[in-house]
Amino acid sequence: MNIAHRGASSYAPENTFAAYDKALAMGVNQIELDVHFTSDDHLIVIHDDTVDRTTNGSGPVAEHTLAELRTLDAGSWFGLQYAGERIRTLGEVLEHYKGRHHFHIEIKARDVPGLATRTIDMVRGYGLTDDVTITSFWKPWVDESRAYAPEISTGWLVPLGPGSQWDDSIMDQALESGFTQVCPRADIVTPEIVKMLHDKGFVVRCHGIFNEDLMRHAVECGVDGMTINFPDKLVELLETNRG
Ligand code: G3P
Ligand code: CA
Question: Considering the entire predicted model, what is its pTM?
Answer without folding.
Answer: 0.97
